[in-house]
Design goal:
The complex is a heterodimer of chains A (about 260) and B (about 270).
Chain A (H helix, E strand, L loop, with lengths): L1 H35 L10 H10 L1 H35 L1 H16 L4 H9 L6 H24 L3 H9 L4 H35 L9 H10 L3 H29 L6
Chain B lengths: L3 E10 L7 E11 L4 E5 L6 H8 L7 E6 L2 E2 H6 L3 E4 L11 H11 L4 H14 L15 H13 L5 E5 L7 H18 L2 E6 L2 H7 L2 E6 L4 E7 L14 H32 L1
Parallel strand pairs in B: 3-8, 3-9, 6-7, 7-8
Antiparallel strand pairs in B: 1-2, 1-4, 4-5, 9-10
Helix pairs in contact in B: 3-4, 3-5, 4-5, 7-8
The chains are: A mainly alpha (about 260), B alpha/beta (about 270).
């Protein structure tokens, strides 16, 4: 048993080892470059300074993360709910899909962030709603496209089989289409979760409340506090990673034996 | 009492348009209870279409289909037949046992009864230890055996199969043919079996229905007299080869017009 555990630790180390070594050497190289070439802090901050700032401003970074993360989470949940609901409607009424698909493509083709400026105009300056609406929109389309695919692209053998059992459309939906769409939903969430964080703090660059990670990064750069700005960037990375990790864990919990 | 009866059935797709396809013209076929009948013919001869008419997955353009002395539609509602396809068509998110239980679930059986039947079916296809695995953990031949177990789970009197062994390798295929005969013998199930393979059709069937394309129709029905007990020795028996030759000649006949046309063209070319 103990040997088994030791073996597991070793295999785990082998798996993450290369990534770990790469990460550490990258940081070391960065640090050495800053010191060796005497790079000025306004050009590039040293990792040691960034970590120092990160721990010094820890509570502020945490607060800002909660604001951006909260916006991302609200948008993620609302967008997922609407996306799933709409995909059911689209899979039931195919002609609606033909109407909406071009719109979805058009919305994805424009840099959707510019909508934030418009949304900011619609609400008061202290409102978080524009950012949440923005995240909702981004998540909505990712979820809609994927789940609709999962609901409609079922194997013809499965549909014929269910019809041979005289199953109604509703039963086919429940027993075939919905289970088929579940992995598609989690694929969508894996893309949508980091995207929601990115959208939440990029949205902050377009004005409104100055309390999130995005606005802190700009304000620190404006005040020539480069290392502090980098510390907020680090916070943003961690927030994105947290969202991604949760989406992967959720997928693992709901997945039933299907490893394709 | 016949297990199924097809009377003057035709199926025309896209009728009255330029894309009209006469998939089946005036097909008559009666299958007796316990009989094993194969449908064989080149691609486009309508054998799969005929199977789907029997299954009521398609409606005939004219003529009638009755299964178990009911209309095909009523037979489908009553789940009077089980069906198996070239792809096993198992559901990846269900365990082997839950896959077999699916038709019973749709019939509204309670859990205990379903599980007992699934267990019985797994014994029948000789895979009892695989109940709690997922389909992707099984080989292609095993998956197809589970599909057969699922098709027979509700003990339907009729089994409809559309090239069920088409995707299997030759060794597995011959094993599955033996297993299918054993299973259908034990359950006295009537079978209609679509295939591309002449030896397969002969080995399995009491009668081989030879079909031809454009328009799809039955050209010949060949009785196979190999007795009811068939085993690996059957594949080496004189009667086996005689029947194979008979089916092959009947199939050549379906290409006769084609061959003649080619011969004439060949002469003109010289």
């Amino acid at each position: 048993m103990a040997e088994n555990n030791a073996l597991r630790v070793i295999t785990r180390l082998r798996q993450i080892g290369p990534a770990l070594v790469f990460g550490v050497s990258f940081l070391a190289l960065w640090e050495a470059a800053v010191r060796g070439f005497d790079l000025k802090p306004y050009f590039l901050a040293a990792p040691s300074k960034i970590f120092e700032q990160f721990f010094k401003n820890y509570s502020r970074i945490w607060e800002a993360s909660m604001v951006s993360g909260g916006n991302a989470l609200v948008g993620l949940i609302v967008g997922t709910v609407f996306g799933v609901a709409m995909s059911f409607i689209l899979s039931r009424y195919r002609f609606l899909g033909e109407l909406i698909t071009p719109l979805a493509i058009a919305l994805n083709a424009i840099p959707i962030f510019v909508l934030v400026a418009v949304l900011n105009n619609m609400y008061s300056i202290t409102s978080e709603i524009p950012r949440r609406v923005m995240v909702t929109l981004v998540v909505y389309f990712i979820v809609l496209v994927n789940v609709a695919k999962g609901l409609t692209q079922v194997r013809s053998t499965h549909v014929e089989l269910m019809r041979s059992y005289a199953a109604s459309e509703f039963v086919i939906l429940r027993k075939v289409r919905v289970p088929n769409a579940v992995p598609y939903l989690f694929t969508a969430l894996k893309v949508a979760a980091p995207a929601s964080v990115i959208t939440a703090f990029v949205s902050e660059y377009f004005g409104g409340l100055q309390n999130g990670l995005g606005s802190r990064i700009t304000s620190n750069i404006a005040n020539a506090k480069n290392a502090a700005a980098w510390a907020y960037v680090l916070g943003a990375c961690l927030l994105g990673l947290a969202f991604y990790t949760v989406s992967i864990i959720l997928e693992g919990v709901t997945r039933k034996g299907d490893t394709k | 009492m016949s297990a199924l009866e097809v009377a003057g059935a035709s199926k025309i797709f896209n009728q009255g348009t330029t894309k009209q396809v006469d998939a089946l013209i005036d097909v008559n076929l009666t299958v007796n209870p316990g009989e094993f009948v194969s449908l064989i013919g080149p691609s486009g001869c309508g054998k799969s279409t005929l199977l789907r008419l029997i299954a009521n997955l398609l409606e005939p353009t004219s003529g009638s289909v009755s299964v178990n002395n009911k209309t095909a539609a009523q037979a489908r509602l009553d789940q009077d037949y089980g069906m198996a396809f070239q792809q096993a068509g198992l559901f990846d998110w269900r365990t082997v046992s839950k896959n077999i239980e699916l038709p019973l679930e749709l019939k509204g059986w309670d859990k205990a009864k379903r599980e007992a039947r699934a267990k019985e079916m797994l014994e029948l296809v000789k895979l009892p230890e695989f109940a709690d695995l997922y389909p992707w953990q099984l080989s292609g031949g095993m998956q197809q055996r589970i599909a057969i177990a699922r098709a027979l789970a509700a003990h339907p009197p009729l089994l409809l199969m559309d090239e069920p062994f088409g995707a299997l390798d030759e060794m597995t295929r011959e094993y599955m043919q033996g297993e299918l005969l054993r299973i259908c013998g034990e359950t006295s199930t009537t079978v209609v079996f679509v295939t591309h393979s002449i030896p397969e059709a002969v080995y399995l069937s009491n009668r081989v229905v030879v079909m031809s394309p454009r328009p799809g129709r039955i050209t010949e029905v060949i009785d196979v007299d190999l007795g009811s007990k068939r085993n690996e020795d059957t594949r080496a028996a004189d009667g086996f080869f005689k029947s194979i030759t008979a089916v092959r000649e009947a199939l050549r006949g379906t290409h006769a017009d084609h061959a003649a046309a080619n011969a004439i063209r060949g002469v003109e070319d010289r």
